[in-house]
Structure formats: structure tokens, C-alpha cells
């Protein structure tokens, strides 16, 4: 039957109305106990909505909901066949995310089995759905790890790692059920056989709360005659302002032999339109075109992240059979690994031919309950990254391939994405044929899904698999540890499907022969994870004799790191006090109470204390604990970022571990679970500005450096060395012309650095900065006072004028509501300093009296 002149594009019917109920493992489908199911979402969300559990994040409820993972969970709903179905139409049931081990029945007949949360389950129901007739869909989710046995090679790795870690750090916290391997879950070896997010079983930043259920939408898709199966619009080159663009569309002509064409358009932000008309040959339409005066996609710091609206239509004669709408950015991305004059090789991203210094952080899932994070939540988080000066987010390999809303937000915000494949911190049985087939299907799906995103800058094989394998075996020879995944299946998939985006075997990874097996986290090649700081070990940047445990973990060790790209570095800190108050009962709001420690998954629970003894002194109460840990984190990240940026181009990127949180706990994040930025967020935002002015104490000298990660620019400013009593001891104006990538000294002095003074720099084109000549607890700030005036502007809007009498450190406004945003926070004011802070939040989020100004909790003044 022909449909001349009639639009017959696909129709998509959302499948909703699910209910959920438990049974014992292997039990029959339950007759009672059904409750409405949260879809997309999961079992925990459904039980929470029904009032059957308390929130897993509150108090110690993590343990109270452990039973959820020990049941079978049944979901059911009704599917109605499409009303306008035409004979011969194809009908497919697409379950975009099943988490994780699922059996499906339609009208009591087995439909299929699925056990990978990272790719969809698709079933052809063409012959099983009758027009306008109800059909029952039932899905049973089994416990994710049931029936698995730890592969021998993985057991051997963990045995070796346990011995090695015990030899380095023989103390193991009493009652800690995690192996001595850095805080990874005991279930991790078993979980290598199941394609589920590895952080599900708990990590050193989050609880054990494995999500279960339908975590992405379910749709019934009806197609006629032929369908667009996939499309790729990629930029091959930028030549004299024109973009060479290849358009490739895969077509499944399942019920037609008629000639087919792809027509459509690419529309620039300016409205300039490029028309498309490509014949389909052998199931593929492919054409390379030139787009003159291309409006390129850039990171937000360099220019506008322009996006083109793409419309692709599949046509047979004058009939529309299918269509796709998308947004793409015209841009090229490359990885520069040329020789570095300093030694070794560069590791530098090049966007549209421009080398960049990537400034950003590692991204974790926004919740343990991965299915119920809203698009609005993603936009807020990515917006915070953009506002924080970040140009790259690294999707960590122990989490998930993120929801589409995340990548859309990054495309719009002009933030690059380093995309790990989902493997983390353990050897994988890559010679298991069943697992290898599953990985190949997963990689094919995810690369196809994400390759049109302008933000995708790198495909990386895993997180820390190689470095831990090397630690245990001192080699990376081919074998049954993941080698086939990271060096064959994944790179071959990327080369076949997304050849213009670089692939990297893992993070960290390097291959400089001079560093031997330690090259995987070395300083001469590739990216590295700088965990000398916090863990206190030599991770490849050098060790030394330290006077104390605190000195071995101290942030000043960053100064010895000559890595080419720092893809992880971090320091632990508390969230804001108000966040703790929302999740920890009032009677437990004390340092190291049971509920307090339950929200800290790092071990030992007092690991920060030896560092705090040096930096701030030990806290005496909860308020000090919050401020002291925040200050230690903020000062440390500031110090590290400044060091790495001064080293550009020899170092070309810093990604803080970590940007966000999976739950409201104590971690390395700079933005907490409730979306409240920590002090470190503001410190990093200033250090991540396109132009950074920073002081360096070196060999008895004090130097002022300017580091430029943006375009060419002229800057001018003034610096001074001033006593805390207000006396100015040195003052100097300066100006400089900075080329892109410039980092150099613009001023120096050999004068003694008096600990009773501080160095201060301010000017046009860069944020104000300062340097103390000692640790915070030793700085003689002297007496200070803060006065402020709040001026309401409108609902949810105000300005706060702050003035300091004396030197005020760590000046901040505690958040009266999680969504209130400050134009700046956690800053210093010199004697007589003034600042105006803009405050914005939802309507009725705060009253003027809710806005108060605080200094450092440990300030004697």
C-alpha cells in the first residue's frame, strides 16, 4: 500500500502507569502490595513516594533500606496498540534503561531478558499487538549480583592490592568492611560481570544504595515502510572560516524498495540555512558539504557555543516516512601529543585549531537514585560549572553514561565533556565472551548516542584500571584484565563511529618508557591523578621524607608535580552547615556522632585531622569543623590550580576531584548534593578565570605571575605587600600584553616576606588575589569587624554591602536556601575593604534578615 503525499513519520507513545511490588527472590509474581511506580526512576523512589521508607540519605537510613536490594521487584502496566496503525507498520517497544537484571513478559508470554543498564532493550511487537487492544507488560528485576561468582583473575588482583596497601598503610579501621584498596566496595570484583554502575555498592564518597528499576523512559514506536536508524553530523575540518561537514544517515527500509532520500537543513544561530538533499544508497545517505562563514561552537570562555538546528527527513517520492531533529555544533577537537620542550610529550586539547588549558572537574552521578534526576537539576549543576569558570567536565567511569539532559546542558553552556566508558578501579574478565559481546553492544550504542554532541571532547577507556593493574603486576601486557576492552573493542568502536573525536585508553594513562610501569600515572606523558595530596603516598610525582603524616598529605606537595594534565586532584571537606542540618538529626549534629560519621565514607573518619593541625588547627565544634575543612580544601585547590596554570603549556589541564555529590555527605566535592557551593567553588572560580594573577614564593623570591588561558589580552593592575595593621610596605603598578597561552613572571622581589604581612594584587582583566606567608592558623590577622547593609531589590533578590575593619578572612554569607546564589562568596577583605554582593534566589527563598555575613570561625578577632 502506498501513501502518496501523506506524512507517515514515526509516532512515539510514552508507556506510563507502572505499578511495582516485591517478592522473595525467585518467587511468584505478587498478588498484592502493588504501589504506583516512579518511572523513570526506580524502586527506592517509588517506596519513598508511597511513604513506605524514610529517605535513604537521611540519618543512618542507608542501612534501613538495605533490604531493597535483596528482593525481586515486579513492575506492571498496560500497553494499548496504536489506534492509527496501518497494515505493515513496524511496532517496537523501546525500554531506554532497565536497571539491571530484567525479565519481561507480554500477556504472560516471555518477551526477553536484559542485564545491562547502559543500553536499551528493544523488542519488535509488530505481530504481538492488536489495534486498540490492551496488553499487559510485566518486568521482573532480580537482585543485581545474584548468581555471580568472582572471576579468578579479579580475585587475584584484589588479593595483591590488599597485601600491597596493607604494607603501605597497615592500619585498617576497626569494623570497616571495605578492603584495604582505597575505599572501593567489597562487591566490586563480583560486579565486574554485571553492566551496572559500580558506585552502586558504595564508594569513598557515597553510600551503598544500588538503584533498581526502570531508570529511563519506555516508549512504543510505530514506523512505516522505512525509518532513520541513526545519524551523524560531524565537522571534519575548519578551513578559512568554512566548515567541512559530513552528514551520514543510516536507514532501515524494512518494507519498501522505493527510492529514498534524506532532505532537510542545517540552520545557524544567525538564521543562515544550508539545505540537504542526499539519496539513500545501500541503506546509507552520506555527503560532505562546505558551510561558509561557519558559526563555530566554542567553550564559553573563548567565544559563543553556537549550535545549528538540524532537520533530517526521510522521504519516498513526496511522502515523509521519518524525521529527526537535533542540535549540533560545528567544531573540531584534537589531542596534541607533540614533544614538550620540557621533556616528554604534551597532553593538550585543541579546539578549532586553538590549544586550550582545560579547567574543570570530575562529574559524578547527581544522585545514587540515577533515574529520577530532573533535566532542570542538570541545567542548574552545569550552570554552576559554567559560572565557576569551568570549561570541561569529566564523566567518571564508575558512574553512568549521563542522561541526554546533561549533554544538552553542556552543549548550550559551552562546556567540554571528557567521557569515560563505564569501567572503574578493577581488572575486568575481558576474555569472557558473553561480557565482551555485551561491551561491544554497549559501546556501539553509547558512541552513536553521544557522537553528535558538540561537547564530547574525548572517549576514555576507564577510570584507574591500568594504574591499579600496574600497581599489582608492574606491567600492562595483553591479558584477561580488560586489555581487549581498552585496546581493541572500545578504540575500534570509536574509530568506526566517531573518528574525529580522540580516544584515550584510560584515566590516568601515559606511556613514556623512561617511567616504566609507573608511566600510567607519571609526569612525562598523558594525564595523571594527583593523589599524593590527601593520601600521602607517592603516586608518580615523587615522594620524600616528611616530618609528619599531615605534611605527607598537605596541599603544598602539588608544587612538586610536573604532570602534563591533572585529571584528578582533590581535598575532602564538609558541606555547608545548613546542608548538614537538613540531613542529620538535630541531636546528632556533632563532630563524629554516629550519623555524622555515617555521612563520611572515607576512612579513617579523622583522616583530615593531621592536615588541619597544620593548616587551621583542630576544630573545637561543628561550626569550626565546617569552616576549617572548607578552608583546607579551598586553600589547597587554589594552591594547586595556580601551580598547574603557571606551568602552561607544559601542563594543559586541571580537573578537580570532584565537582558534585551523589548524596549529602562529606566528600571532595566543590558543590554539595543540595546544590550549595562550598568555599572551594569560589576559590576555584577565581583561580579558573581566563587570566590568573598569582604569587609564587620560590628560592627566597616573591614573584607575580600572569597566566592566560583565553585569547590575547592587555591587563593592568597594582600589587602591594601590606601589614595586617594596614601599613603598606611595597606597592607597584604593572601592565602586560598576554598572548593566548601566555604564563610568565611580571614582577619579582628579593625582600624578606614578613609573616606579619600579606601580598595583594588587583586590577582590570583578572580577579583579585592574595598570598599569606604562612598557614592560616599562623597568620596574625589581628582584630577585625564586619558590617553590612542589606538592600532588597525584589522577590528573591537583594544586594549586600560589606565593609571590613581590619583584615577579614573567609568572608561569607551562609545560604538561607539551597537555590540562593551569590555573585561572590568566601572572599577576603583587606583593612577598610568594601564589596557589594548580589543575591538571587527563588521567590520567598529568603527575607532580608536571613542574609547575614560571617567571617572565619577560627578568627580570633
From TrEMBL:
Keyword RNA-binding part of the UniProt annotation: no
Keyword Hydrolase listed: yes
One example of a Gene Ontology biological process annotation: glycoprotein catabolic process
Transmembrane segments: none
Keywords in alphabetical order: Glycoprotein, Glycosidase, Hydrolase
One MF term in the entry's GO annotations: beta-mannosidase activity
Domain (Beta-mannosidase Ig-fold) ranges: 795-841
Pfam families noted in UniProt: Glyco_hydro_2 (PF00703), Glyco_hydro_2_N2 (PF22666), Ig_mannosidase (PF17753)
Domain Glycoside hydrolase family 2 immunoglobulin-like beta-sandwich: 227-331
Reaction catalyzed: Hydrolysis of terminal, non-reducing beta-D-mannose residues in beta-D-mannosides
Beta-mannosidase-like galactose-binding domain: residues covered: 32-216
Enzyme Commission number, as recorded: 3.2.1.25
Protein family membership: Belongs to the glycosyl hydrolase 2 family.
PANTHER family, per database record: BETA-MANNOSIDASE (PTHR43730)
Designated name of the protein: beta-mannosidase
The species this protein was found in: Microlunatus endophyticus
